[in-house]
UniProtKB/TrEMBL annotation, chains A, B:
<keyword id="KW-0805">Transcription regulation</keyword>
<dbReference type="Pfam" id="PF13545">
    <property type="entry name" value="HTH_Crp_2"/>
</dbReference>
<dbReference type="InterPro" id="IPR036388">
    <property type="entry name" value="WH-like_DNA-bd_sf"/>
</dbReference>
<keyword id="KW-0238">DNA-binding</keyword>
<feature type="domain" description="HTH crp-type">
    <location>
        <begin position="122"/>
        <end position="198"/>
    </location>
</feature>
<keyword id="KW-0804">Transcription</keyword>
<dbReference type="InterPro" id="IPR014710">
    <property type="entry name" value="RmlC-like_jellyroll"/>
</dbReference>
<dbReference type="InterPro" id="IPR018490">
    <property type="entry name" value="cNMP-bd_dom_sf"/>
</dbReference>
<dbReference type="Pfam" id="PF00027">
    <property type="entry name" value="cNMP_binding"/>
</dbReference>
<dbReference type="InterPro" id="IPR036390">
    <property type="entry name" value="WH_DNA-bd_sf"/>
</dbReference>
<dbReference type="InterPro" id="IPR050397">
    <property type="entry name" value="Env_Response_Regulators"/>
</dbReference>
<dbReference type="InterPro" id="IPR012318">
    <property type="entry name" value="HTH_CRP"/>
</dbReference>
<dbReference type="InterPro" id="IPR000595">
    <property type="entry name" value="cNMP-bd_dom"/>
</dbReference>
<dbReference type="InterPro" id="IPR018335">
    <property type="entry name" value="Tscrpt_reg_HTH_Crp-type_CS"/>
</dbReference>
<protein>
    <submittedName>
        <fullName>CRP/FNR family transcriptional regulator</fullName>
    </submittedName>
</protein>
Length: 206, 206
DNA sequence: CGGGTGCTTGAGTTTGCTCAACGGGCGTGG
DNA sequence: CCACGCCCGTTGAGCAAACTCAAGCACCCG
C-alpha cells in the first residue's frame, strides 16, 4: 500500500483503549488482526456497543472527531496506523481514497441500521441468534445453510450483552436454550459449534 | 445550485413510498420540505424506523443500492431529485461533492449510533423524552435549556413507537406521565409544548 | 347521526431484569 | 502439589417494566 512509508504497526492488548492515543484517533488505522469494539455510554454507567470492527476494516474518523464513541480492543489487536496529516494529504491527491472512505462509511451505516432493527424489535433469543450468525458470517462469509461451523467468540458474555442491549444472565440463558434445543454446542463458554446455521437463522427472526 | 438544470422538483403526499420510484432511489434527492422516514422490517411484520431525514438533508444511496431500507414520506414532502447518472457525472468532475457526501454519511452514522444507545439501553420514559428532545432540537437547533418551545410532532404515535422500539400504548403512557409531571403539555395529540427542556433532558437519561 | 381513525386508559400477562447462590478454570502462594 | 481466591459464566426465584388485549373517547367526515 502507498501508505507503507508513513504507517506504523501497533499491537494492542485486549482491553486497551484506543481513545487517548492521539495518533490513532486523529488519524486513521487499518485493522490487521483482531476485533475492535465501539462503545457509547450513559452518565449512569449503562453501555452499548455500537459497532464491531474486524480485520481488515479501517478505523477512525477523518475530518472532525468529537464522535462521542470510544474504541476498545475486544481481542488482542494488530493495526497499522498513520497520522491524520498523512491521511488528509493523501486524500487531496487521490480522490480514489475518499471514495473508498465513503464506501466504508455507507457499509457501516447499513450495519448500524441492521442492528437498530435488532435492538428495537427483536426479543432476547432472536438477538442472541442474530449475534451468533453475525460472528459465524464473519468467520466464514461463504457459509452454507447446512454446513456445520465452529469458532471462538471474540467477546465475553458482558460484551455480548452490551452489544445486544441485554444483561449477561439473559445472554447466558438464551445460549443455554439454543444448546438444549440442539442448535448449537457450547464448549468452554467461548467456543461455539453451530450445528445447523439454517435452523439458527429461524431463531434469529429474519 | 449547479444541479438546477437537471433536477426536478417533486411533491410527495404523506405516506408515499420512495422506493419503487426509480429516479429517486437510483439517484439522489434533496429534501426541501418535510420529513422522510427510513424503515426496516422483519418478515413477520415488525418494523423499525432506522432514520429520519429532515430538510435540508440529502436522500438516497449513491453507488450500489440494495440497502434493504425503504423510505416513506412521514409528512407531505417536497424534494428536488436528480437522476443517478447526473450525480455520478458530477462526482467525477467535482471531488468536493464526494466530500460532502462523505460528511453526510458520517453524520448519519453518528445519529444511527446515538440511537442504538437509546434502543439498547434506555427505558420507555427515557426513549420518549429523547425523542421529544430530538424533534425540539430539529425545530430550534439553538434551543436554550430554559426556553419554552412548542411544535407539532411530524409523526403519528405508531410511527413514534416504530422509531423508539416500543408499542403505541407505551408511547402514549409515557407522554401522559410527562404531561402529568408538568414537563410538557399535549394538545390535539400532535401539538407539544415543552415547558422545561432542561427538565425534559433529565428524563432522557443523558 | 353513524362510522372510522387515532389516541388514551385499564387489567392481566409475559419477558427480561435484579439479586443471590453456585460452579468451574486458572493463577498464586503455601 | 494442593488450597485458596478470583473471575467469569450459569442457574434459580422473585419482581418490575413493557406488551397484549380490550374498552372507551375525541375528532373528522360523510
Amino acid at each position: 500500500m502507498a501508505l507503507a512509508k508513513t504507517s506504523t504497526k501497533k499491537r494492542l492488548e485486549i482491553g486497551a483503549e484506543l481513545v487517548g492515543d492521539a495518533e490513532i484517533i486523529d488519524g486513521y488505522a487499518n485493522i490487521l488482526f483482531g476485533v475492535v469494539k465501539l462503545i457509547k455510554g450513559l452518565p449512569d454507567g449503562r453501555e452499548q456497543i455500537v459497532g464491531l470492527q474486524f480485520a481488515p476494516d479501517f478505523l477512525g474518523r477523518p475530518f472532525q472527531t468529537e464522535s462521542a464513541v470510544s474504541a476498545q480492543a475486544a481481542t488482542n489487536v494488530v493495526l497499522c496506523s498513520f497520522p491524520k496529516r498523512t491521511l488528509e494529504a493523501l486524500i487531496k491527491q487521490s480522490p480514489q481514497l475518499e471514495h473508498s472512505l465513503l464506501k466504508q462509511a455507507l457499509r457501516e451505516l447499513d450495519e448500524a441500521r441492521d442492528w437498530m432493527l435488532t435492538l428495537g424489535r427483536k426479543n432476547a433469543l432472536e438477538r442472541v441468534a442474530s449475534y451468533l450468525l453475525l460472528i459465524a458470517n464473519y468467520i466464514d462469509p461463504a457459509l452454507r445453510p447446512q454446513e456445520v461451523i465452529a469458532f471462538d467468540l471474540p467477546m465475553s458474555r458482558l460484551e455480548i450483552a452490551d452489544f445486544l442491549g441485554l444483561t449477561i444472565e439473559t445472554v447466558s440463558r438464551q445460549l443455554t436454550k439454543l444448546r438444549v434445543d440442539g442448535v448449537i454446542q457450547v464448549r468452554q463458554s467461548r467456543h461455539i459449534v453451530v450445528n445447523n446455521p439454517a435452523r439458527l437463522k429461524t431463531f434469529s427472526g429474519g
